[in-house]
Amino acid sequence: MHINDLEVIDAKGNYVSAGFIDLHIHGSGGADAMDATPEALETISSTLLQTGTTSFLATTMTMSIEDIDNALQNIQDHKENVSGAEILGIHLEGPFINASKHGAQDKKYVQKPNIELIQNYLHEIKMITIAPEVDGAEDFVKKLKKKHPHIILSIGHSDSSYEKSKESFSWGVSHATHLFNAMNSYHHRTPGIVGAVFDSDVTCDIIADLIHTHPSTLELTYKMKKEKLILITDAMRAGCMKCGSYDLGGQTVTVSDGKATLKDGTLAGSVLKLNEALENMTKHTSMTRIEAINAVTKIPAQILGVKKGQLKEGYDADIVIFDEDFSIISTLVAGEEKYKRG
Known about the structure:
Blueprint: E1 2-3, E2 6-7, E3 15-18, E4 20-25, E5 27-28, E6 31-32, H1 38-47, E7 53-60, H2 65-78, E8 86-93, E9 125-130, H3 137-147, E10 152-155, H4 162-171, E11 173-176, H5 192-198, E12 203-207, H6 215-225, E13 229-232, E14 244-248, E15 251-256, E16 259-261, H7 274-284, H8 289-294, H9 298-304, E17 319-322, E18 328-333, E19 336-340
Parallel strand pairs: 4-7, 7-8, 8-9, 9-10, 10-11, 11-12, 12-13
Antiparallel strand pairs: 1-2, 3-17, 5-6, 14-15, 15-16, 17-18, 18-19
Helix pairs in contact: 4-5
């Protein structure tokens, strides 16, 4: 139906929101950002449309310097050429982490923070996960914050104390990566990173797949952080795929019953979809539907400084139509319908 040559889409009583933004996603549809090919980026971009995701940060991980450089170069060269969800830039997750909290990342490739390694990609990099307690982190954070303020510095894969974490916030660290995971545990005498995040106004993200974080933990985090909480997937190449064996950073991952693990049982990213994260938060916590939507639209857009995440004049026309259960009916990127449920 057209009125004065304007296309009208009938949402038929379903929900309409701004498109979802994923700040932390390694892959989907069988492809990974570390594959370092334009085809991989296209696969991820087109696959994510069915989850309501209209833009994302292509997330790298701790591998060899050559592998990371190839992945960054590929994103730099081809991020504008994808046909589905828009690539807003790069999330560099590693190699500047604490080897003791490597999680599913290969600790043999952990590096000291070094701006030279990423010098050619500082325009495309929008977020860096870093362990502030490692040697050289303070200088790295302060220099980046001064010269490249658009880059969000995020504490993660870290064993930082409560005190060091709070200190790093004063340097310029302003976010926390997948809170609770790949970091020290909250303890009543040593509250660690989680305690520091709860006691400050930094933003944080969480994997709401009911595997990485218990529903009670999701509820606590929501109550503590409110509009500072962002939902992410941390999905690997098995996202939107069948169960089986997959590769993540050169290591074999087995996906079964919605859980992705390494051979030793370590959680290895997720196969979560953002629309599933929304359903989980509204079903298992007191977070309202609007608050949950804001956590994948308005709030991530604000920390990235992009004109997205809200349905208002002057903002990008990234739009999602979904039903009561957050099942995606239609996804529009820049005003063009890119996905429609069959």
